[in-house]
Structure formats: structure tokens, C-alpha cells
Design a protein that fits this description.
Strand content: under 5%
Number of domains: 1
Helix content: 55-70%
Number of helices: 11
Number of strands: 0
Structural class: mainly alpha
Radius of gyration: 17 Å
Length: 223
């Protein structure tokens, strides 16, 4: 759900809670799930509630991976609840308009989050890569390099940088153009932009409640 800058910021904020020892593996783990866009893995192999089981986070790489999934889920529900431009959408299903609007919102948040922490430190961790699903490790490394190129040594990341990141990884220009136009439209909606700007603090304030809810679901105790 979220993009790389948001994911790495969230991972840093949860690092101590997760008792991380190897930060490099942890940060590489938190961006790993979206490498599927390069490796071609089915989404079910990199995303899903099973990744939120306590036993899943058995090493620092998988701790980062679990934090990725938690961030995605909390961000999605807060988007639907607090961002006016997204409020009319059902929580299920992904028609194109919904996908475009949520992608635009993710871009707006990512641009904001990229300026809020030491992103260069996180990027320095991405020389580590792993392939827990047996995918081509060179494809995972290519994804990591693309993340570095997108965010490295920029005074301010722009929506255009993120657009170029995804088109560089194979997103079609036609679809990329739709995302670009939808992002430009969203940026004209001051109320929604302000709500998106407040999303990260809401994620930090509320992720524990969502974490407990999903841990109960995946353990079979949906009470």
C-alpha cells in the first residue's frame, strides 16, 4: 500500500519495539515485499495477514517485512476513514479509479515522509538483499537500486521522481500518465492534502490497535 519512503520511516520508528539487531537486514526487509513488481512474484507470496503472525518475525529481515505489511494495512484503513478524496470507496475491490486515487494519495504521503527522517541512512542499508521466495536475487537487487536512485541526495523528492521510479521498473507510460494526472488533481484538493499530511502521525498513534486486531485474526481468535 505505502511507498518506500513511508515504509522505511515507519520501520525506523518501530525498530526498538522489534528489538532489531541488524538494521541493514531490517530495512532491506521492509522494502522487500514490493520488489515483486520486478521479480514477478504473486502478491500472495509477499503480502497478506499471515505475515503478521508473531512467529513470522523470526529474524530481522522478516521483522522489517512484517512492519511493511502492518504499515500497508493501517495506512489503507486510515486513508479510507480520514481523506475526503478517498472516503467514498468500499474497503474491498480495486476498480481502476480507486487504484489511481489511492496511488496518488500514497505518492503525496511518500513525498512528505521522505523529508521527515534520515532517509540516506536507510538507503545505505539497501546494499543488502535477500530472496526468501527463491526469486532471482539480481531482480531484488535491481529493485533496491531503483529505490536508492529515486531518493538519494535529493533536497526534495517530487511526485515526478516517484512516477519515473515506477515507469523505470516497467509501469506502462499510459498507466503512468493516468497516475501523474490523478496526483496533480489530488494536489489541488487542499482538504485531502492536509488529511494525508496528518496520516503518518495517525499511523504511529494507532498501529498498536490494528496490530492486535490482525494478530487475533491470523491466530484464529477473531474476538
Amino acid at each position: 500500500m505505502a511507498f518506500a519512503a513511508t515504509h522505511m520511516r515507519f520501520a525506523l520508528d518501530l525498530k526498538d519495539e522489534y528489538r532489531v539487531r541488524d538494521v541493514k537486514k531490517y530495512i532491506a526487509g521492509t522494502i522487500y515485499p514490493d520488489s515483486r513488481y520486478v521479480t514477478g512474484l504473486d502478491r500472495n507470496l509477499t503480502h497478506g495477514e499471515d505475515m503478521l503472525k508473531p512467529a513470522f518475525a523470526r529474524d530481522d529481515f522478516r521483522k522489517g517485512w512484517q512492519v511493511h505489511e502492518l504499515c500497508d494495512m493501517v495506512q489503507y484503513f486510515l486513508f479510507t476513514k480520514t481523506v475526503p478524496a478517498l472516503a467514498g470507496y468500499s474497503v474491498s475491490g480495486w476498480p481502476e479509479d480507486k487504484w489511481l486515487d489511492f496511488t496518488a494519495a500514497k505518492i503525496v504521503e511518500d513525498v512528505e515522509d521522505a523529508q521527515k527522517y534520515d532517509i540516506e541512512f536507510c538507503l545505505s542499508c539497501l546494499d543488502y538483499a535477500a530472496n526468501p521466495n527463491g526469486e532471482n536475487i539480481e531482480d531484488v537487487k535491481r529493485y533496491n537500486r531503483a529505490v536508492i536512485a529515486c531518493y538519494h541526495r535529493k533536497s526534495a523528492v517530487t511526485p515526478g521522481d516517484i512516477y519515473e521510479f515506477w515507469t523505470g521498473l516497467g509501469l506502462g507510460r499510459e498507466l503512468g500518465g493516468k497516475i501523474k494526472r490523478r496526483t496533480e488533481k489530488l494536489l489541488q484538493d487542499a482538504e485531502s492534502v492536509a488529511a494525508i499530511g496528518a496520516i503518518y502521525d495517525r499511523i504511529i498513534a494507532s498501529y498498536g490497535a490494528y496490530q492486535g486486531y490482525y494478530e487475533n485474526r491470523v491466530s484464529g481468535d477473531d474476538t
